[in-house]
Amino acid sequence: MYIILIYDITQDNGGAKVSRNIFKICKKYLTHVQKSVFEGEITPPLLVKLRMELDQYIREEEDSVIVFSSRQERWLEKEFWGAADEKTSNFF
């Protein structure tokens, strides 16, 4: 499956540390697109593993992670408004 993962971490007490940990975990499984956005192919078991790792750091009342999924990347239309990042050029 192909996913886009977006996270929003509140930058209060401990937020910077949480954000760093979330970033490092996501980087192991997906391609970093920009700031707090990742995308890529992932198997359902790896997605479960990713979620379990992230659950250790996500503070339920303060932080959020959104995952958009599609069967394959080709079913997902992507359009850049403004500067297109070179890191995602191989996904077209």
From TrEMBL:
Keywords: Antiviral defense, Endonuclease, Hydrolase, Magnesium, Metal-binding, Nuclease. Its cofactor is Mg(2+). It comes from the Bacteria. InterPro entries: CRISPR_associated_Cas2, Virulence_VapD/CRISPR_Cas2. Gene3D superfamilies: 3.30.70.240. Mg(2+) binds at residue 8. GO terms for biological process: defense response to virus; maintenance of CRISPR repeat elements. The keyword Hydrolase applies. Its EC number is 3.1.-.-. One of its GO terms (molecular function) is hydrolase activity. HAMAP family: Cas2. Homodimer, forms a heterotetramer with a Cas1 homodimer. Belongs to the CRISPR-associated endoribonuclease Cas2 protein family. CRISPR (clustered regularly interspaced short palindromic repeat), is an adaptive immune system that provides protection against mobile genetic elements (viruses, transposable elements and conjugative plasmids). CRISPR clusters contain sequences complementary to antecedent mobile elements and target invading nucleic acids. CRISPR clusters are transcribed and processed into CRISPR RNA (crRNA). Functions as a ssRNA-specific endoribonuclease. Involved in the integration of spacer DNA into the CRISPR cassette. This is CRISPR-associated endoribonuclease Cas2. It comes from Listeria grandensis.
